[in-house]
Design a protein that fits this description.
By secondary structure, the chain is mainly α. The protein is 62% helix and 6% strand. The longest helix has 16 residues, at 26-41.
């Protein structure tokens, strides 16, 4: 993920954004920050979360909210992320990293309309093609086929997309979850082919799977999808 992957859980005491917030009680805040850092070193998620909640209670500032939101997301607490966004809604759009967490949290929870809203906001703010790909995925889930097609066309015609890759997850032969990093253009062609195959358009879907494999010949999911068109009944 574009912003989340750059986040380091263990914040440095000197020079970090939390201290830059200039809280109302410096001694109390530094005490809580030290408690948070110790909990992070011990990989104690609940204790670290409590320290950040106490920071917010002492001085409700955006940096503390952002740190808590990221901590919850990195520990898979997606429900907590959404609740935080609702409680601290005056902060949740202050930076793209927080908005990204909200988008992926809503996607994980199946709140697709909310996920799409946040991905659209991210794309509007950054023009990042990876968010456009996330939009396309959710648009397909919501059966917004016209918007989905427009997103795919933007990705596949974008020069910026040529250097971008995305992680694709799928179930392997042994039932395990397999992850593969592929060019985002190949992923977009594969997604379009998958949509067409679900619409019983085998002939056209095959063309998109071939386009995906022309970009990434080792794209496992696209190879499997292409093979499935040979045995399709429609």
């Amino acid at each position: 993920m574009y912003f989340i992957k750059t986040y380091v859980l263990l914040l440095l005491l000197c020079g970090n954004s939390l201290l830059c917030a200039q809280p109302t009680s410096e001694a109390s805040v530094q005490h809580l920050i030290k408690g948070y850092q110790l909990a992070a070193e011990m990989e104690d998620y609940e204790a670290a979360k409590i320290q950040l909640i106490q920071l917010l209670a002492l001085t409700p500032r955006q940096p503390y909210f952002a740190a808590l939101l990221k901590l919850c997301y990195q520990n898979g607490d997606y429900n907590q992320c959404v609740k935080l966004a609702q409680k601290f809604k005056t902060y949740n759009f202050e930076d793209n990293a927080s908005t990204e967490i909200l988008a992926y949290s809503n996607k994980q929870l199946g709140f697709n309309s909310l996920a799409l809203y946040h991905f659209e906001m991210l794309y509007q703010n950054t023009s990042e093609v990876l968010y456009l790909y996330e939009m396309a995925q959710v648009q397909l889930l919501l059966n917004q086929l016209e918007a989905f097609t427009q997103s795919i066309e933007k990705i596949t015609s974008s020069k910026a997309a040529e250097s971008k890759t995305v992680s694709i997850s799928f179930t392997g032969r042994d039932g395990e979850i397999v992850r593969q990093q592929v060019p985002v253009k190949a992923a977009a062609f594969n997604l379009k082919g998958h949509a067409l195959l679900n619409q019983r358009n085998r002939k056209e879907s095959k063309q998109y799977f071939i386009k995906a494999l022309e970009i990434a010949p080792d794209f496992t999911l696209a190879n499997g999808n292409l093979a499935s068109t040979k045995f399709s009944l429609f």
